[in-house]
Write a structure and sequence with these properties.
Helix content: 55-70%
Distance between the termini: 21 Å
Number of helices: 43
Number of strands: 11
Structural class: mainly alpha
C-alpha cells in the first residue's frame, strides 16, 4: 500500500514492489506473493468507493485523488506557502497546516527495509525543511519566543543541523536571550569538533559574530529574500489613494502641552526611527479622560509628517456591545481605504493582513487605533514600515505591546484646575463667565478635571444662555441611579451626576429616546432605526436626535447616523432599566429587530432576486419604519452600512430569546455576505441561527440555518462539515415541503460532488433540483438546474445533450432578465464547445460571459478566464492564452486559493517551469 501511495496514479513496477519487501534477499515465488498482496489490497479498497487498484503493464497502479494522500496534501501546502511567500502570515499558516499532517516519522510502520531506509529519510528531510521555512516566517512575524521553544526540541534531535541551529540562535537573540543564543553556538561548536572534527560552517559563524558584535542579524539567515520581496511589493500598478480619516478636531482643545511635546518626541519631524520599524505609542487612561481628543488633536498638528495619509478606526474595545471589533474587520476597512478592489482582497484573514502590510511598505502614514481592548487586537494592525506611526488609545496597560513590539506608553490623567478652567472659559459666552465668575471654580471642582464632564457642562450652559452657572450646577448634587465604576467617592467625581444634569434638560420625548438607546448592542443607529426603536415617525426621530446631538449625548458621525460615548450608553441603560417598564423595553427591542429584519428582507430581494429562498417574516409591529430601499444599488449600500449591526442584532436577538428574528436575520444576510466574500461572518451568524432554531424547535428555521452554514463552509473548503449541514438542510426542507429549499440544497451538494470529480452524483442532485424547481414554478431556478445538468453531461462526455440543456437554460435566463444566470449559461456553452473542438465558438461564448462577470462576480470571473485561456491556446493563440491564464491565476490566488493549483500547473507546463511535486517525483 505504501509503495503504491507514494506513486499514486502512476504504474509501480512489480520488481520495485519485490525489492521494497525483500531487498536483495528475494525469496522464491516473490512475484506471486506480491500479486497476492495486491489482490487482497484491491478487495480492501473496494468499500471505500474511490480508490481503485488496477493492473498495468509490468506493475500495478493505485488510482486515488491526491487530496486523499497526506504526503501530496503536505507537498501541495508547502508549495502554496512557497508561492505565497510575499504574505508571511498566510505562508506560516499553510506550513502549520502542512506539518499538522505528520504523526511521527515517515513510513515508521511499513514492512520491509527499502522504504524505511531508502525513502523515509528523504521524506523526513522534506518535513525538516518545512519546519525551518515556517520558523523563518514566524521570526519575520515577531513570534520569537514560540520559535525558540519549538526549535530547542528539534535541535536536541538534530544537533548537527546548521540551519536549525542558526534559526534557534536568531529566535533567542530576538527574544532578549543573548546569552542563551551564544551558548547554543558554543555547544554546537564542541559537538562539531567531537563528532566531525571540523568547525561549524560559515552560516553559523556569521550568526555568532553578529550577535557578539551587537549587529543586525544577517538577512540571509532570517528570510532575507522574503524581506526583500515584501519591500519590493510596495510598487503597485496605480497610485494608491491617500486616506484622510481623522475625525474632526476638538475646537476648544485645552492644555496637554506636556503630552503633545512627548508625542512630538516619539516621532520627530526628521523622519523614521533608526530601529527600522514602525513607531507605536499607546495613550492610556480612564474613560472620559480625553484620550481620543488628545490623539486626534496631535494627529492634526503632525499630519504633514505623514504625506501618505491617516487611518482612523474605533476598535470598540470598551463599549456597549462588549464585542470588540475583530482585527479582520479593521484590516478589511484599511484595504478598502487604500483602494484595493473587492475582487483583489484575499479570502483568508492572514492573506489580508499580509496584503495590508505589503501595501504599507515604503509609505509614511499615521494609523490611529482608538479604544483598543487589548494588545492582541492591535498586533495584526501594526505595519512593518518604519515611516509609519501607530497611535493607540486604550483603558488598559499594553504590557504585551511594550514587551514584544517596543511600544511607548503615554499615561493620561485628568486636567489640572487651571486647564479645566481654561476649557470652560473657551466654551462659554463671555457674559456668562463675567456674570458668574465666582461659580466657575465650583464647576471646575465638581467636574474633577474630567474633560467629558466639563464638555457636558459647557454644552448645557451654551444651550441655556439665559441661565446662570449657579443654577446649572445645582443638578450635580442629585444622583439618580448608579454608574458605580465611575464614582470617585463623592458627588463631585460622580460622572452619573454630570450626565443626569444634561439629561434633565432634555424634552420628554428626547429623554425617552435617549433611554431607549441603552437597549442597543451596536455603536450607532440610523434615523429610521431610532424611529423604530422609539415607535415615532422619522421626522420626529430626526428632531429628537438633533436635540440629543446638541446636548452632546449623541454625535452625528455621518449624515443620518448617530453614535455615542460608551459612558453615556451605560448611563442610558441604567435609566431605561430604572424608568421604563419591562414590557416597554421588550416592545422597543421588538420594533428595532423588526426594523432590521423587514429592511434586510427588502434589500435581499434586490441583491439575490433569482436564487434566494423566499422568506416571509411576521408583519412588523406598529411604529416600525423600514429603511427606504428601491433598487439594487441602494440595497448594496444599505447592507454595507448596516451589516455589522445586523450581525450584532442577530447575536442579541438569540441571547434575548427572539429566536425567529435571530435565524431570519442570518438567513436574509446570506446573499450579501456570500457576494462580498464575508464567509466567516456568514458561518458565525448561521451557527447562532442554528442555536436559535434548535431552541425554537422549528424545522424550517433549522433548514435555513443548516443551508446557510453549509454554503459558507463549502466556500471555505470545509467539505466534510459542509456536506453534513447541507444534507440536514435537504432533509428538513423535504420534511416541511419547501420545494425551493430542497432544490437549493441539491445544487450546493452538487458543487461538492463536482469538486470531488463525482459528476454522476452531481448530475443526480441537479436533476432532482430541476424537478423541484419545476414543481414550484420557479423559472430562474429551473434554468440554473438545466445549466448545471448540461455541465455535468459535458463532464461525462455527452456533449450534444449538454448543449441542449445549456441552450435551454440560456433562453430561460434571458427571458427572466437574470444577467448572472445568463453569464453562467454562456460560460457552460463555451466549455462544451471547447470540449467538442469548436475553439472559436468557445472563445466567443466565454467573452460574452465575461462582459457581465468581470464586473459583478469575482471567483466565477476567474474560472471563466481560466477556461477562456485554454480555448485560446487550443485555437493557436498561445500568447493570448498564456496572458489570460495569468490573469485568472492572479484572481484565484487572492480569492480562491483552492482553485488556483490547476491553473498554476498549466502555466508551468506551458512555460517549462517545474512544480515542486514534479521535482520530487522526478
Amino acid at each position: 500500500m505504501a509503495a503504491l501511495l507514494l506513486d499514486a496514479g502512476r504504474t509501480v513496477p512489480e520488481r520495485r514492489l519485490v525489492h521494497a519487501l525483500w531487498g536483495e534477499a528475494r525469496p522464491q515465488g516473490a512475484a506471486e506473493t506480491v500479486r497476492g498482496h495486491v489482490a487482497r489490497l484491491r478487495r480492501m479498497v473496494v468499500p471505500l468507493g474511490g480508490p481503485e487498484v488496477t493492473d498495468a503493464r509490468d506493475g500495478f497502479c493505485l488510482s486515488v485523488h491526491r487530496r486523499q494522500v497526506d504526503l501530496y496534501r503536505f507537498r501541495e501546502l508547502v508549495r502554496r506557502a512557497s508561492a505565497g511567500d510575499r504574505d508571511p502570515e498566510r505562508a506560516a499558516a499553510l506550513l502549520r497546516s502542512a506539518l499538522a499532517l505528520w504523526h511521527g516519522p515517515a513510513l515508521a510502520d511499513v514492512a520491509g527495509r527499502w522504504l524505511p531506509e531508502e525513502v523515509a529519510p528523504g521524506l523526513d528531510e522534506e518535513r525538516l525543511s518545512a519546519v525551518e521555512k515556517r520558523a523563518e516566517f514566524e521570526l519575520l512575524l515577531g513570534r520569537h519566543q514560540e520559535v525558540a521553544s519549538e526549535l530547542r526540541t528539534l535541535v536536541a534531535q538534530h544537533p548537527l543541523r546548521e540551519r536549525l541551529l542558526a534559526l534557534l540562535m536568531a529566535a533567542l537573540q530576538r527574544s532578549g536571550a543573548r546569552a542563551d543564543a551564544l551558548a547554543v553556538y558554543r555547544r554546537a561548536r564542541e559537538r562539531f569538533a567531537e563528532d566531525l572534527g571540523i568547525e561549524p560552517g560559515g552560516q553559523l559563524r556569521r550568526m555568532y559574530e553578529a550577535i557578539i558584535g551587537g549587529r543586525e542579524l544577517p538577512l540571509e539567515l532570517v528570510g532575507g529574500d522574503l524581506r526583500a520581496g515584501l519591500v519590493g511589493q510596495a510598487t503597485v500598478p496605480e497610485p494608491l489613494p491617500i486616506p484622510h480619516q481623522l475625525p474632526p478636531d476638538t475646537e476648544a482643545f485645552t492644555g496637554r502641552e506636556a503630552e503633545l511635546a512627548a508625542l512630538d518626541g516619539m516621532f520627530p519631524a526628521s523622519g523614521p526611527r533608526p530601529s527600522g520599524r514602525a513607531a507605536v505609542c499607546v495613550i492610556t487612561g480612564a474613560g472620559g479622560v480625553g484620550k481620543t481628543a488628545l490623539a486626534v488633536h496631535w494627529a492634526y498638528q503632525a499630519r504633514k509628517r505623514f504625506p501618505d495619509g491617516q487611518f482612523y478606526v474605533d476598535l470598540l474595545g470598551f463599549g456597549p456591545t462588549q464585542l470588540a471589533r475583530p482585527p479582520a474587520e479593521t484590516v478589511r476597512l484599511f484595504l478598502d481605504a487604500l483602494g484595493v478592489p473587492p475582487q483583489r482582497i484575499p479570502v483568508s484573514v492572514e492573506a489580508q493582513v499580509g496584503l495590508y502590510r505589503s501595501l504599507m511598505t515604503g509609505r509614511r502614514m499615521l494609523i490611529l487605533l482608538d479604544n483598543a481592548a487589548d494588545s492582541e487586537q492591535v498586533r495584526p494592525l501594526l505595519p512593518g514600515a518604519p515611516g509609519c506611526l501607530v497611535l493607540v488609545t486604550s483603558r488598559v496597560e499594553p504590557t504585551a505591546l511594550v514587551a514584544a513590539e517596543g511600544a511607548r506608553t503615554l499615561p493620561l490623567d485628568v486636567l489640572s484646575a487651571a486647564q479645566s478652567r481654561e476649557l470652560l472659559l473657551r466654551r462659554l459666552a463671555a457674559r456668562q463667565v463675567a456674570a458668574d465668575e465666582g461659580v466657575v471654580g465650583d464647576v471646575v471642582s465638581r467636574c474633577a478635571g474630567l474633560p467629558l464632564a466639563l464638555s457636558i457642562v459647557a454644552a448645557r450652559a451654551q444651550a441655556r444662555p439665559g441661565f446662570g452657572l449657579e443654577a446649572l450646577i445645582g443638578g450635580l448634587d442629585g444622583a439618580v441611579s448608579g454608574l458605580d465604576v465611575f464614582d470617585g467617592g463623592d458627588p463631585a467625581t460622580n460622572v452619573r451626576t454630570v450626565f443626569s444634569w444634561s439629561y434633565r434638560a432634555l424634552s420628554r420625548e428626547a429623554a425617552r429616546l435617549f433611554r431607549l438607546l441603552g437597549l442597543l448592542r451596536g455603536p450607532e443607529i440610523s434615523v429610521a432605526g431610532a424611529a423604530s426603536l422609539a415607535g415615532v415617525p422619522v421626522r420626529q426621530a430626526n428632531r429628537l436626535l438633533a436635540e440629543l446631538s446638541r446636548a452632546h449625548l449623541t454625535v452625528e458621525r455621518s449624515p443620518g447616523r448617530y453614535g455615542w460615548h460608551d459612558l453615556l450608553w451605560v448611563y442610558a441603560r441604567e435609566l431605561t432599566e430604572a424608568q421604563d417598564s419591562g414590557v416597554e423595553r421588550q416592545e422597543a427591542r421588538h420594533r428595532l429587530f423588526d426594523h432590521y429584519l423587514t429592511s434586510a428582507v427588502t434589500g435581499a430581494e434586490y441583491l439575490d432576486e433569482h436564487h434566494r429562498i423566499p422568506l416571509v417574516p411576521a408583519p412588523p409591529r406598529p411604529g416600525v419604519t423600514p429603511a427606504r430601499i428601491t433598487d439594487e444599488a441602494q440595497a448594496r449600500a444599505w447592507f454595507g452600512r448596516e451589516y455589522p449591526l445586523l450581525l450584532a442584532a442577530t447575536r442579541q436577538a438569540q441571547l434575548l430569546g427572539f429566536d425567529a428574528h435571530a435565524w431570519q436575520l442570518a438567513s436574509v444576510l446570506r446573499g450579501y455576505l456570500t457576494q462580498q466574500g464575508l464567509l466567516e461572518d456568514q458561518a458565525a451568524s448561521h451557527r447562532i441561527a442554528l442555536t436559535a432554531a434548535g431552541r425554537a424547535g422549528d424545522a424550517n428555521a433549522l433548514a435555513h440555518a443548516h443551508l446557510g452554514l453549509g454554503q459558507a463552509l463549502t466556500r471555505l473548503g470545509s467539505d466534510e462539515e459542509a456536506d453534513a449541514h447541507l444534507g440536514s438542510a435537504l432533509a428538513l426542507f423535504a420534511e416541511t415541503g419547501n420545494l425551493i429549499g430542497q432544490a437549493v440544497s441539491h445544487i450546493y451538494l452538487s458543487m461538492l460532488q463536482d469538486r470531488d470529480g463525482d459528476y454522476a452524483t452531481g448530475l443526480h442532485h441537479n436533476e432532482r433540483a430541476l424537478l423541484l424547481y419545476r414543481q414550484a414554478g420557479h423559472r430562474s431556478g429551473e434554468a440554473r438546474s438545466m445549466n448545471n445538468i448540461g455541465w455535468c453531461h459535458a463532464q461525462l462526455g455527452s456533449y450534444e445533450m449538454a448543449l441542449r440543456c445549456c441552450e435551454e437554460a440560456l433562453d430561460i435566463q434571458r427571458e427572466q432578465g437574470n444577467l448572472a444566470g445568463e453569464a453562467a449559461a454562456l460560460d457552460s456553452l463555451g466549455y462544451i464547445h471547447h470540449l467538442m473542438g469548436r475553439h472559436e465558438q468557445a472563445i466567443d461564448y466565454y467573452e460574452q460571459a465575461l462582459r457581465w462577470r468581470r464586473h459583478a462576480r469575482r471567483v466565477p470571473a476567474a474560472l471563466t478566464l481560466s477556461r477562456l485561456g485554454e480555448a485560446q491556446l487550443a485555437a493557436g493563440r498561445r500568447a493570448a492564452g498564456l496572458a489570460t491564464l495569468r490573469r485568472a491565476l492572479a484572481l484565484l490566488d487572492e480569492m480562491a486559493p483552492g482553485e488556483a493549483a490547476p491553473v498554476r500547473a498549466r502555466i508551468a507546463e506551458l512555460t517549462g517551469e517545474r512544480q515542486p511535486q514534479d521535482v520530487a517525483d522526478g
